[in-house]
Specification:
One of its GO terms (cellular component) is cytoplasm. It holds the Pfam family His_Phos_1. This protein is α/β, with parallel strands linked by helices. Strand 2, helix 3 and strand 3 form a beta-alpha-beta unit. It has one domain: Phosphoglycerate mutase-like (Rossmann fold, 3-Layer(aba) Sandwich), CATH 3.40.50.1240. Helices cover 35% and strands 19% of the residues.
Length: 198
């Protein structure tokens, strides 16, 4: 069990640009996001080998970003539902400033808190940890590229560091950024976070 996992956050959408909670709302990339997807694809291209594994969230913004990457090497990607964004339930579509401050307080202090009809950070953490465990078993010295969203990527970081989901509140993740995790017989290690194509 060895190799590396490169996790890419999708490019920008209109909701990202306007500070709205996007969650499961299936928005496309905006013009900036499409350019970001091409930039991160070009940036990663030298690292992509014929045996690289490609995995993607089912949401359109992730699939558009993943398509830009795999097109560079004539490959394809597998959809894994476990990499989908956190479900914000009844808060989806709201501007972040429209969520009451006491709700944000509870969210930050309780990993089991979920918006009405939504999902908690611990629920995201459990599904992403399973996805990471499965991917680590498949590496066999190879690299995997995963295209996902802010909350699952922060959960993958927690998995690599062996800490709980609350670490996500202490991190900032840009659109189209790269997170790198190495996997070896001794476990996983975070090697880069919020790396931006340049």
């Amino acid at each position: 069990m060895s190799g590396s996992i490169i996790i890419v956050r999708h490019g920008r959408t209109e909701f990202n640009a306007t500070g709205r909670l996007q969650g499961r709302i299936d928005n496309p990339l905006d013009e900036v996001g499409l350019a970001q997807a091409e930039a991160v694809a070009a940036y990663l291209q030298p690292e992509l080998l014929p045996d690289t594994l490609f995995v993607c969230s089912p949401l359109l913004r992730a699939r558009q970003t993943a398509t830009a990457i795999v097109n560079r090497v004539g490959s394809s990607f597998d959809i894994d539902e476990r990499w989908i964004e956190l479900d914000y339930g009844s808060y989806e579509g709201l501007r972040q400033a429209e969520v009451p401050s006491d709700v944000w307080r509870e969210w930050k202090n309780d990993n089991d808190f979920a918006a009405p009809q939504g999902e908690s950070l611990n629920q995201v953490q459990r599904r992403v940890a399973l996805a990471c465990d499965d991917l680590a078993q498949r590496l066999n010295g190879r690299t995997a590229v995963v295209v996902s969203h802010v909350s699952p990527i922060k959960s993958a970081v927690a998995w690599a560091l062996g800490v709980d989901a609350s670490v996500g509140w202490k991190t900032q993740l840009s659109t189209a950024s790269i997170t790198r995790i190495s996997v070896s017989s001794t476990g996983a290690a975070l090697t880069a976070f919020n790396e931006v194509a340049r």
